UniProtKB/TrEMBL annotation:
Keyword Signal: no
Pfam family of the protein (one): BPD_transp_1
Protein name according to UniProt: Phosphate transport system permease protein
Chief location of this protein within or outside the cell: membrane
GO cellular component: plasma membrane
UniProt keyword annotations, A-Z: Cell membrane, Membrane, Phosphate transport, Transmembrane, Transmembrane helix, Transport
Protein family (similarity comment): Belongs to the binding-protein-dependent transport system permease family. CysTW subfamily.
Record's keyword annotation contains Transmembrane helix: yes
Transmembrane segment boundaries: 15-39, 68-95, 115-136, 148-167, 267-289
Superkingdom of origin organism: Bacteria
Amino acid sequence: MASKAKRINHYSEAVITAIIRTAGYLSVLFVALISFFLFREAIPVVFKIPAGTLLNTRWYPIEGLYGLLPLLLGSLTITLGASLIAIPLGLLTAVYISEIAPPWTKEILKPMVEILAGIPSVVLGFLGILVLSPFLRETFNLPTGLTALAGSILLGWAAIPTIVSVSEDALNTVPASFREASLALGCTRWQTIWGVTVPSARSGIITAIMLGVGRVIGETMTVMMVTGNAPTMPAGLRTILLPIRTMTATIASEMGEVAKGSDHYQVLFFIGLILFLFSLIINIVAFQISARRVKRSERLLS
């Protein structure tokens, strides 16, 4: 009986290992197929449309104007604005949950953060249209509340849960001996947090920020609903109170109306390729930083 049970366990482990290995290979295959499809549809743009047209400041496909600068700068504006909101709030929240909050508060805040992460982007956009946009229009006396500021606030809200969760995990991996040594040397609790704990979790916090920024760059429905969808060039600091359009919103709003194989169709895929490369770079950097953190933790524990 013992030998039979051992064989069953061996076969079960072999099956589970094979399933996990297959899932990993399929993930790599899917990413490779997506990359191939994007490159196949987007690369012809480089040979068919002059670089001067793609680097133009006007996006008006009906007249053959495919200037990507307003869309690229619009995405960067939204990303920067959302990052300025999400990074400090997310980091401070993570520090509070990990280092300061009593246990009963953690039991409330952790589920709330997870619930916030699960809110669909279309719901955030709906709330932005009904609540945030009218508030911004009345507060700043604007013609419309559908502006870059509305998109930045909502995307910052959407990125906060990612930053909080990953940053808190990084803070929790800091050995307790670090805090105890700092307190034993006469440092205050705040000096220990900002001088010892946070710097020790720096790699994990940077990973959290990178993942949060990646979430902002790839967001579609929220920015399409609350930013006004106007492909205009930024005009300094005033841009934050003006309608704007991002690359993701352009693909979502126009892909269903273009003829397959047309210049417009291929330019939209070229925009998708740019977004794909941005997201890929961000995830690779985050992975490298995370791997470095793991190696550092292993060295400390050894």
